[in-house]
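Annotated sample (chain length 371).
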Amino acid sequence: MNSNHAKYLIYIAYFNKCLKFGMSTMLKFVPCSCVAVLLAVSLPVFAQQRVAFTSIAEAGPDYLIQGEYRGLVRLAGVLRSASGLQVIARGEGKFEANLIPGGLVGQGGNLAKRLQFAGATADGVTSLKADGYEIIIADGQATVVNQDGRRVGRLRHVVRESVTMGMPAPEEAVILFDGENTENLVDARVTPEGLLMEGVLTKELVKDFRLHLEFRTPFMPNSQGQARGNSGVYIQRRYEVQVLDSFGLEGVHNECGGLYRQKPPALNMALPPLVWQTYDIQFRAARFNDAGEKQENAQITVYHNGVPIHTDYELTGKTGAGQPEAPTAMPILLQNHSDPVRFRNIWLVHLDQADSLQNTRQRKRLAGKSE
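Output written by the structure step:
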């Protein structure tokens, strides 16, 4: 018996309660002085193996259950109405789900009135339950039954695509990544499938610009929070638009589409993992006087999967661990958090002619050095 296991036995009563009532309830039963010790020595006993799948072929049966569903459900009254369902994989056959009146997020869904379900797959049947309702999922269909066992709705699995997916670069754009050419990037790594890996910096220095990029988070069912498909678009290395597998979550500042530690997205438009998504960003750099004093905040507009989630928002300062604000142009960083996030079809348009000229000169200098 190792020392960690011995320490675990000391707290077995507390963890029996934890398993019975859920991890978030544990703090009600454990003295505050014991919480840190419990987390430090006991969680590894229960931790699921951290996995990260980058293709549907290897993702396993849970991936075929998780995702978005759309159909008609009668939750009140006599008529069925449009509804959406988000099924989130939690590892080892366990799932959570949101049944959303009105449809899916961004398509009329009313998140404030969603019903939250939880359940698992057992003997080949996936059953999710909430007060008064059960959802049974099989063969790409989700059947909703009430407490009397009567069917009140049926939804079918769907895979949505952003309206800006595959958007071609305009003539004046700088192509950052097109599946092959990486000459405008620093430390670029490309997969055999022609996808850009995380942890790359642009050679372009940016001030005012418009950016299009497409990204895909991995399927990491055993992970949660910031450990689940984490990356970020770090504008000027100062301001982060978060990239994360936040499918089905609340949509806060440190989840997908959030301006890290400053502002949550207006809507959580995160699609399921392994589904390609888009960011379309317009950015106006902070303005400084000749003395280097900031006169105007930076402004940002972000469309996530074609839906506006930030509109002309004024960034009050750098986000998180970003570089200090300054009048100098800086590059864009696609952050590396050790999760296999992938990118494609990335281009930008400089909205300031002087900045565009500066970058053209810089590219020529860099090209000269590499010859």
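Annotation: The radius of gyration is 23 Å.
Annotation: Confidence is low (pLDDT under 50) at residues 1-46.
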